[in-house]
Each structure stands twice: as C-alpha cells, then as structure tokens.
Automatic annotation (TrEMBL):
SUPFAM superfamilies: Galactose-binding domain-like (SSF49785). It comes from Mangrovihabitans endophyticus. It catalyses: allantoate + H2O = (S)-ureidoglycolate + urea. Residues 16-166, 185-321 form the Allantoicase domain. Belongs to the allantoicase family. Pathway: Nitrogen metabolism; (S)-allantoin degradation; (S)-ureidoglycolate from allantoate (aminidohydrolase route): step 1/1. It holds the Pfam family Allantoicase. One of its GO terms (molecular function) is allantoicase activity. Its EC number is 3.5.3.4. The keyword Hydrolase applies. This is Probable allantoicase. GO terms for biological process: allantoin catabolic process; purine nucleobase metabolic process. Keywords: Hydrolase, Purine metabolism. Transmembrane segments: none annotated.
Length: 340
C-alpha cells in the first residue's frame, strides 16, 4: 500500500467535500464517490435503472466522442500526495482508463466557471483495474481546492480518495480555533496503541457517530497507560480542552491528562521540556468534558494520556496561535500557493 494512504482524504464528505458537477449519473450518483465508508454491494439488487451500485456509474457512450467526468470541491484544500480511484465491485462496467486534474480558486465558483477554468494535470490518463483500488502518486508541491476525475470512455467508480496535507487559508481562520482539528492541518504523530480505532478519528469534524468512530485501545494488563501525540495545526496558546467520551460506556478511560511541548525550542522526546496543560483528571463515561486550561506558553505538540486505557471519541484543543505560529501558517500557505 502506498504511504500516502495514511494521509487525510481531502475530498471526503466528512470534511465537507462535495460534487460540483457530473456530466452523467445515469446508473448511480456521483455523490457516492466521496462517502467516507468503504463501498458495499448486494448482488441482484435492482431498481428502475438496473443493478444498484454504491458508486458513480455513467451510461454506455456507444461510440459517442468524448469521455465522462466529475468535478469535486475538496472539503479540506491542501497539497495532494496521492489519489485512490477505487473500482470495488465494478467488474464488467469499470472504465479502462482515468485521469485526475487539480484546480485552485478562491470563493465559490459555479460549475460553469469551473468547467471553463484551466486545470493542472495531476494523474495522466492511466489504466485502471476492475474491482480494485487503483493508487496513483501525485508529484505537485502546490495547494488545490478542486479536483476533476475523468474516466475514459465511461463506466463506474466506487470511491475517489484524494490523500494529502491540509493547508488552510489563514484569512479564513478565526483568531481562536481548534488547533487539534484535522481540517485545520493537525495530525497524529505517535500513539501507544490503536487496537480498536485509529487516533486520527479524534481529530475529525463533527460528533462521533458511534464507538467505532473514535480512538480505542486494547485492555492493558500492566501498570502503564495509553497515550497519543498530536502535532497542532500551528504553535498556539491553548485555552480550552474538550475531551469527549461519547459512546464509550464500559470502556471510557478512568482519567485523562494533557501535556504540551514547544518543538521550536525543545524536543518532544525530552520530558524536561513538557508543560502540564491538564493534570490527570477523572472522566465520566459517554460524556463531553470541557476544561478551561491555565495559562501556559505556546506549544507545538500535545500529548493526551489516558489512564489506564480505553476510548475517546473526540479531542478538541481551542487556542490562539502565537505571533510566530500565525506567521508560520501564512508562510506555509504562501509557499504552496505560488503558481507552478
């Protein structure tokens, strides 16, 4: 599996991605492409258009010139590192080739403006396999807000994943925001255990839909505790922490604590540089907990410790980037926004 698949899916509906235009959706709607869940299939399930597919499927072109395409607004604009064109369950009706292009625009242009725009090739016309994940590495240093998937000449695709690094527009961020949010560029850099659920789930938008939509560790049989390390979207002074154990009832942590470190002056590997943000504090099962934090210096990384183990639905850290942190956000945005 390509390394880029561990990065967030910038196009996911979870981030707010959406279909702006599809030239054909005769057999199955393009909205399916962005669903966060894996595709499913029930054989011999028919409606008035034919076999029901959990994906996007166009009609047979019958020798007509051209090809089919769909335009996607990324929910989290950023630098694209790879694309997954997933044709799961499409066997005799998958497209033999596909291409992906990118576009960066400001504001909210309509479909006509996007169709008329000049797009940047990200994945050249490439062969696809049916009923498979087709992974393509993208080599571009620039930030994009939209992608266009073209299939040649027609057929069905189950999912489109656009994996990359979130780069928000600093002008669209409030003064105080969730610096642990994946949609703002925060990410997990280490954890002790993710047996039942990946810790990246804690940083995703919205409320957890179920226990499986969070971070959960296996049961510890020693004297230690589980932990996760978060690289913040920007160096920031954190004022409020939200530790949400929603859906975790018989398996919520008994306690949790937060520590921070400024990697600009120290190292996350050096315990001497860490400051306490929230001392180990009792938690209640299936409950959102909000804790105001004592004033501390700005930090770049936060470690969540849970005692001894268990599950957490969401972690929110509301803070204000310091002067250098705000400058770093703007510098990163400028770096990836230069025309290529």
């Amino acid at each position: 599996m390509e390394e880029f698949t561990s990065l967030p899916d910038l196009a996911s509906r979870t981030f707010g991605g959406g279909i702006v235009h599809a030239n054909d959706e005769f057999f199955a709607a393009a909205d399916h492409l962005l669903a966060p869940d894996p595709p499913v299939f029930s054989p011999r399930t028919f409606d008035h258009r034919g076999q029901v597919y959990d994906g996007w499927e166009t009609r047979r072109r019958r020798g007509e010139p051209g090809h089919d395409h769909v335009i996607v607004r990324l929910g989290a604009p950023g630098v694209i590192r790879g694309v997954d064109v997933d044709t799961s369950f499409f066997t005799g009706n998958y497209p033999p080739h596909a291409a992906v292009d990118g576009l960066v625009v400001t504001g909210y242009p309509d479909a006509a403006a996007l169709r008329a725009a000049t797009w940047t090739p990200l994945v050249p016309r490439s062969p696809l396999s049916g009923d498979s994940r087709n992974l393509f590495t993208v080599d571009s240093p620039h930030r994009f807000t939209h992608v266009r998937l073209s299939i040649f000449p027609d057929g069905g695709v189950a999912r489109l994943r656009v994996h990359g690094e979130v780069v928000p527009d600093p002008d669209l961020l409030p003064a105080v925001f969730d610096v642990a949010a994946a949609e703002h560029g925060a990410r997990i850099t280490g954890c002790s255990d993710m047996f039942y659920g990946h810790p990246q789930n804690m940083l995703m938008p919205g409320l957890a839909g179920c226990m499986g939509d969070g971070w959960e560790t296996s049961r510890r049989r020693d004297d230690g505790n589980d932990w996760v390390l978060v690289k913040l979207a920007a160096p920031a002074v954190i004022d409020l922490a939200d530790l949400d154990t929603r859906h975790f009832k018989g398996n919520a942590p008994g306690r949790a604590g937060l520590r921070g470190v400024d990697a600009r002056t120290g190292s996350p590997d050096d315990p001497a540089g860490w400051v306490t943000l929230l001392p180990p504090t009792p938690l209640t099962a299936d409950t959102p907990h909000r804790f105001p934090l004592a004033s501390t210096p700005a930090v770049t990384h936060v470690r969540l410790d849970i005692y001894p183990d268990g599950g957490m639905a969401r972690l929110r850290l509301h803070g204000r980037p310091d002067e250098a942190g705000a400058a770093a956000l703007r510098a990163r945005f400028a770096e990836v926004s230069r025309p290529g």
